[in-house]
């Protein structure tokens, strides 16, 4: 039997994240896809299939929150786990209030990642 | 009293009648004249005598009296005849005289010419008193002074003569024997001769007056001629000196003569003048003709051409401004002389002066700079209009120190008084900053620079420029406030930003490391183990580890100073840069910086940035030390000089609170401070920088207020030229951080 793995999409301008995170997600049993920018993600055919979006906050061009608003506007409400390299504690409650599932500060560990993704999938 | 020529000076003329002298009646026998038998008149002889007299009068007036005496002698056939004339000085006829003198005598008494008798005690006086002809016999019986006059007079017939109603003397005839007696005919002849004498005297006086007049006139004419000769020489000198133009002209418009100065002024030459074509009417531009006509009208009325300014055409048609004045020659009616002075230079100077005054006024208005002069001895103060505007006083009101004082800010009054005191006693240039308080309570900041001069009498005078620097001060203050705010924000921000930037840069590879390590473990734990995948993620872990390491290296490189940069440094240049950089800080503290930088200062070898920090520290310390000083100018002197053969010295002298001699060394301790706040790196660091440059940094108290901080360091090797440093100037961290920080 073919078990359909939920697709977790990773959007981050940092290459090492794009390289490492999808491999880990796949090792954890998810399907994973990486995008270097919000625009690239929106232009892809993965938007519909994505069950969880791991989204970097600070990116050149469209930022993480910009993409969140765009998706809400399109009524494609994908559960979002924000990740950021800046440890600004003030940003987390704001993002959570706007509907994010979680907000992880880099560097985060495997457990935090898995908990957040699972929570996202439960929302779905 | 004898009045002979010999005895005249020995006798008193106005002596009283001596005791025992015969009474007047006893010596008079006038009535006998008409009792005696009378001779027949000899009219022919008488006429001849009178004609002779008249011709004598005409030919030789000086001998007329002698001729008259001889005529009497001749006609009366007496023994002596003569005249007595009143005199003051014994010589000159004068009706006011108190003595008679004898100008002429004919006959036996001739040797007595020049003698005489007193007015009020003698026969002549008796005649004038009774105003009639008297006949005396032996008058020496009453008038003993006549006794020595020999031969004695038997009879003397005296006739008065008057001129214009005034008695001037007598004529007389004397017999010395009784050979003949005077009779009625003698009386008639003498009366006739008396009348003649009167006319003759009058004629003679007239002639004398004429003579005097003639001689006086001749003398005057001679003087005039002499004067004219001198004057002519002087005038010729004036004309030929060509200092001013001299021109001869007539009212018809002709110029009949001129000196070279005049011709040169109008570019004409002698030939033009000689041709007679040169006319002042043609030389005068049309708009000056009315003026000329009025001047000519005045000239005709008064003979004088009052000096006035006008213009003439030059030969080339250009105009020349002149001052003209002159006069008509007396008696000529239409000819005159004038002087003409070329005013071109004065006009040019006036124009230049007006222009420069206008420039100055406009310049002062634009630059907000006023100026004044102050004569210290008299307290005479003159302000430019702009200064009145700065002080908001009505232009032209008399300026006194008292008036100025009413505007000076109360906190600056003490400073102001001190400046005035110093200026009075000093005599050197000075400079100060002070505040004014206006009637509307607004405050103006002024900066004044005064230059001392001595006038021709050696009196002290200051010429000063005063600039209203209020706007500049206000904008500086606003700018400073903004800058301080930004600096503060930047300072607070920069640490957080820096930390975030470092965190961000390091967190990215750390994330990769963590993720890859987890993946690697997962792959190895899988059944079967994904060894290839694990190997690949382990490699990526190493790569991310290196990446994190690179970030740290880059950050270290960014903030680490490239120490030990040694270059050639021109301390003058560094000082000038620093003064410029810290100008606003210094001016906010009302510090007057006076750089005294030695010419040709040899460069030193060292770390430019470190030396900059030391000098900046000294400047700011000095400024801070003068912060509370109100009773004297906050003067800061930065001096560079060669110190000995091989060192260069820089000193910063302030007029501040000074340094306690006991603290002189302690101030260089690392944690010693007298200030609550401040910039700079501190004296202890400054000293270690200077010592690392093989130099010395020290402080001494000034003779006056304040302290002087100095350092000296070795000069660079010979032939080394100063060059700007390369890459040794650190840029602020906040700016550089922006290059490595990306938005979160």
The helix/strand class of chain B is alpha+beta
Strand order of the largest sheet of chain A: 2-1-3-4-5
DSSP strand tally of chain A:
5
In one word, what is the shape of chain B? rod-shaped
**What's the Cα radius of gyration of chain B?**
61 Å
Shape of chain A: globular
Number of helices of chain A: 5
Question: How would a crystallographer describe the biggest sheet of chain B?
Answer: 7 strands, antiparallel
* SS-based class of chain A: alpha/beta
Can you offer a commentary on this structure?
The complex is a heterodimer of chains A (124) and B (744). With 124 residues, chain A is an alpha/beta fold. Chain A has helices spanning 15-27, 38-43, 64-73, 91-97, 110-123; strands at 7-11, 31-35, 50-56, 80-84, 102-105. In chain A, α4 (91-97) links the parallel β4 and β5 (102-105). The longest helix of chain A is centred in the C-terminal third of the chain and has 14 residues, at 110-123. With 744 residues, chain B is of the alpha+beta class. Helices cover 43% and strands 22% of the residues of chain B. Chain B has 21 helices and 24 strands. In chain B, strands 1, 2, 3, 4, 5, 6 and 7 form a seven-stranded antiparallel sheet that branches. Chain B is rod-shaped, with a radius of gyration of 61 Å. Classes of the chains: A alpha/beta (124), B alpha+beta (744). The A-B interface holds A 14, 16-17, 19-21, 23-24, 27-28, 57-58, 60, 63, 83-88, 91, 105-110 and B 500, 503-504, 507-516, 518-519, 522-523, 526, 533, 537, 540, 543-544, 547, 742-744.
What topology emerges from the helices and strands here?
The complex is a heterodimer of chains A (124) and B (744).
Chain A (H helix, E strand, L loop, with lengths): L6 E5 L3 H13 L3 E5 L2 H6 L6 E7 L7 H10 L6 E5 L6 H7 L4 E4 L4 H14 L1
Parallel strand pairs in A: 1-2, 1-3, 3-4, 4-5
Chain B lengths: L23 H4 L4 H4 L7 H17 L4 H13 L3 E8 L11 E3 L3 E3 L8 E3 L4 H8 L3 E4 L17 E9 L2 E10 L8 H58 L3 E6 L4 E4 L1 H6 L4 H6 L4 H4 L5 H14 L1 E10 L5 E10 L6 E8 L1 H24 L1 E7 L4 E4 L1 H7 L9 H5 L7 H13 L4 E8 L5 E12 L5 E9 L1 H56 L5 H29 L7 E3 L1 H11 L1 H6 L2 E7 L6 E3 L1 H18 L8 E10 L3 E7 L29 H10 L3 E6 L5 E8 L18 H8 L4
Parallel strand pairs in B: 19-21
Antiparallel strand pairs in B: 1-2, 1-3, 1-7, 2-4, 5-6, 6-7, 8-9, 8-12, 10-11, 11-12, 13-14, 13-17, 15-16, 16-17, 18-20, 21-22, 22-24, 23-24
Helix pairs in contact in B: 3-4, 3-6, 4-6, 15-16, 15-21, 17-19, 19-20
């Amino acid at each position: 039997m073919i078990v359909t793995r939920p697709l977790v999409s990773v959007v981050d301008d940092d290459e090492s994240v794009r390289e490492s995170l999808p491999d880990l997600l796949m090792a954890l049993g998810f399907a994973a896809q990486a995008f270097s920018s919000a625009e690239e993600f929106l232009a892809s055919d993965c938007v519909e299939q994505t069950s969880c979006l791991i989204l970097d906050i600070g990116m050149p061009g469209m930022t993480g929150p910009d993409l969140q608003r765009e998706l809400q506007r399109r009524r494609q409400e994908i559960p979002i786990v924000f990740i950021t390299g800046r440890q600004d504690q003030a940003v987390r409650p704001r993002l959570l209030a706007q509907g994010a599932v979680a907000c992880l500060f880099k560097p985060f560990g495997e457990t935090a990642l898995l908990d957040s993704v699972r929570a996202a999938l439960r929302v779905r | 009293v004898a009045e002979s020529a010999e005895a005249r000076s020995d006798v008193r003329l106005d002596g009283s009648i001596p005791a025992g002298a015969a009474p007047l009646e006893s010596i008079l026998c006038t009535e006998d004249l008409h009792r005696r038998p009378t001779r027949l008149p000899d009219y022919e002889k008488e006429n001849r005598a009178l004609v002779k007299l008249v011709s004598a009068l005409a030919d030789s007036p000086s001998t007329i009296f002698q001729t008259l005496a001889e005529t009497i002698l001749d006609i009366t056939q007496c023994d002596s005849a003569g005249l007595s004339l009143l005199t003051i000085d014994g010589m000159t006829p004068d009706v006011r005289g108190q003595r008679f003198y004898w100008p002429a005598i004919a006959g036996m008494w001739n040797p007595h010419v020049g003698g005489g008798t007193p007015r009020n005690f003698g026969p002549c006086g008796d005649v004038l008193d009774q105003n009639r002809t008297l006949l005396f016999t032996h008058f020496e019986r009453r008038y003993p002074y006549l006794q020595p006059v020999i031969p004695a007079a038997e009879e003397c017939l005296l006739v008065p003569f008057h001129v214009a109603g005034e008695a001037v003397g007598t004529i007389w005839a004397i017999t010395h024997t009784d050979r003949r007696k005077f009779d009625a005919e003698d009386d008639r002849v003498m009366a006739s001769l008396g009348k003649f004498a009167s006319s003759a005297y009058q004629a003679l006086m007239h002639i004398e007056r004429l003579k005097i007049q003639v001689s006086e006139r001749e003398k005057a004419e001679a003087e005039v001629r002499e004067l004219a000769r001198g004057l002519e020489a002087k005038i010729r000198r004036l004309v030929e000196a060509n200092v001013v133009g001299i021109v001869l002209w007539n009212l018809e418009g002709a110029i009949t003569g001129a000196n070279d100065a005049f011709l040169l002024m109008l570019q004409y030459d002698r030939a033009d003048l000689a041709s007679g074509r040169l006319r002042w009417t043609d030389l005068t531009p049309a708009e000056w003709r009315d003026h000329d006509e009025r001047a000519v009208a005045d000239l005709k009325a008064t003979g004088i051409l009052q000096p006035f300014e006008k213009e003439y055409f030059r030969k080339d048609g250009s105009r020349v401004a002149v001052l003209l004045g002159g006069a008509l020659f007396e008696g000529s009616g239409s000819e005159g002389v004038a002087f003409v002075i070329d005013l071109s230079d004065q006009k040019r100077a006036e124009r230049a002066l007006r222009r420069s005054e206008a420039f100055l006024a406009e310049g002062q208005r634009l630059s907000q700079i006023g100026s004044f002069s102050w004569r210290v001895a008299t307290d005479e103060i003159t302000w430019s209009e702009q200064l009145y505007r700065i002080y908001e006083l009505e232009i032209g009101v008399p300026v006194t120190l008292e008036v100025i004082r009413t505007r000076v800010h109360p906190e600056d009054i003490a400073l102001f008084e001190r400046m005035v005191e110093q200026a009075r006693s000093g005599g050197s240039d000075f400079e100060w900053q002070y505040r004014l308080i206006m009637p509307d309570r607004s405050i103006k900041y002024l900066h004044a620079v005064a230059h001392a001069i001595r006038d021709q009498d050696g009196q002290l005078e200051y010429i000063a420029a005063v600039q209203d620097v209020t706007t500049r001060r206000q904008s500086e203050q606003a700018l400073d406030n903004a800058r301080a705010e930004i600096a503060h924000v930047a300072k607070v921000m920069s640490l957080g930003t820096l930390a975030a930037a470092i965190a961000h840069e390091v967190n990215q590879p750390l994330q990769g490391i963590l993720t890859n390590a987890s993946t690697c473990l997962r792959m190895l734990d899988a059944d079967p183990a994904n060894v290839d995948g694990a190997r690949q993620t382990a490699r990526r872990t190493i790569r991310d580890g290196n990446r994190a390491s690179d970030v740290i290296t880059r950050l270290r490189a960014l903030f680490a100073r490239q120490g030990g940069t040694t270059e050639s440094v021109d301390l003058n240049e560094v000082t000038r840069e620093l003064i410029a950089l810290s100008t606003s800080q210094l001016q906010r503290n009302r510090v007057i910086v006076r750089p005294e930088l030695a010419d040709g200062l040899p460069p030193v070898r060292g770390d430019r940035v470190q030396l900059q920090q030391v000098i900046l520290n000294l400047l700011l310390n000095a400024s801070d030390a003068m912060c509370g000083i109100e009773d004297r100018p906050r003067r800061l002197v930065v001096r560079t000089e060669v110190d000995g053969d091989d060192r260069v010295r820089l000193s910063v002298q302030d007029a501040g609170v000074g340094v306690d001699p006991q603290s002189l060394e302690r101030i260089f301790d690392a944690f010693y401070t007298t200030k609550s706040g401040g910039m700079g790196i501190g004296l202890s660091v400054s000293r270690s920088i200077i010592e690392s440059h093989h130099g010395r940094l020290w402080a001494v108290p000034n003779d006056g207020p304040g302290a002087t901080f100095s350092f000296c360091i070795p000069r660079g090797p010979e032939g080394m030229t100063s060059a700007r440093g390369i890459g040794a100037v650190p840029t602020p961290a906040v700016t550089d951080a922006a290059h490595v920080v990306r938005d979160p």
